[in-house]
Amino acid sequence: MASLSQIIARVCEGLLEPMREASEALDSLRKADLDSEAMKQCDRAARAGARVLSLLETASELRRAETGELVLDPQPRRLRELMDEVEARWRRTAQEAGVKLMVSYDGDPECAVMVDWPRLALAIDALVARALATPGNAVVEASLATRLTETGVVVGCRVRDDGGLVEESDPDIDQLLNSPASCDSAEGIGVTLGLALARHVIAAMGGQLEMQPNVGPGATLTFELTLSPPRPIHQNPDARAPAGRTAHILVVDDNATNRMVVEALCEMFECSTESVADGVEALEAARVGRFDVILMDIKMPRMDGLTATSEIRKLPGAAGRAPIVALTANAGPDEKRTYLAAGMCGVVEKPIKAERLLEALEDALNEAPNSENKAAVA
Question: Which CATH class is domain 75-227?
């Protein structure tokens, strides 16, 4: 027999596509020449629509989880950043509800793990949303603690409220998901669906969502995960450079945000980086021959990536043999052949996924023929 949350999910999933069409139509209307009152009403409708669309998307994701279609996409991220984002997202909601929100992180500030970042955030958000919706609640505590073990990074999450929603002496998640009272409003439905999805996400990551009654009022929801740290890339012991040094990467992109993202990913792979903003600067930087890999944007001012690659290939010695990987949103078969013909050895499509970047770096470091810069994964 289907649970209450499963029934709600099926109904909501059927409404998802019509709601998306309505949202797109409203966005088009807001771009028209409207008077101030009409624009005010459009904005109001857009905010309401965004809440409904979020609920429907949660329901759709829940259906995928229930049918075994939930596929995790681990990316390297710092856990401290996760809790900073949680606090920023929920601060205003807590203030409007008159609830004091206390968010904390206990662990190495630089601790990074491979994790499906959006879905882990979704799970924690669901626990916070449930706590904030608890009647009679005054304080919500959300904490994340990490510790390094031989099997990986153990991550423990704890969200505590002091409200009166849970009256049973031994509450559990099923009681919340199947309680008719949890679905008597749009907010209640959102909390129920979010909590159901969070349980699936946590289970897919190897954990279990649990609920314990507090000594006083309220309850505490917890889960624990063991996650892997990003895999470092090290210099090939057979190369001329000192054995064990990390790979040194040149990041070439005219967009400062893209450079920052790529540098952060390389840092999590324990690679050192330098960055430049166009092909002219890339050519000058490459002359010194100190880079194990060059990550090259294609469309840039002054000198594009293809021209820069061709010019770098003309440089003598190790500088001209450095592996060059294209970073581009244009990664069709014809484009890829063009990049390879220009002297590149691989392509990473934008928006950049960490696993794909790691794979391209490994390929470039391990397969560059006769390169003094050749490196390998430890």
Answer: alpha beta
